[in-house]
Amino acid sequence: MRAMSRGPDSSPPNSLAMAEVAYLLIVLDRGTPVAVAREVRKVPGVVDAHVTMGDFDVIALVEHVETKGFPTVAAAVQQIEGVSKVVTCVVVNP
Fold first, then answer.
1. What does pLDDT average to over the chain?
2. Considering the domain boundaries, does residue 94 fall inside one?
3. Cα-Cα-Cα-Cα dihedral of 29, 39, 62, 11, to 10°?
């Protein structure tokens, strides 16, 4: 597992202050999860992506100034070769 450096406030290095947060749950139909996660990390708005075992192959952490930006990020991830499904889960803070 790779270590992630963090910013001075303990947030991930690509993190936006006061941003909305969502997780993208990604299913692949082909391609290797490691290669797809690498490509997902290049999408603007994606803070990090991890390969997982289970129903989803890759999970990505996304931050955006407003929640209405998440569909654009999800659509960009959907265009990556090998991605068959993207589910967006917006984090709700009580």
1. 87
2. no
3. 140
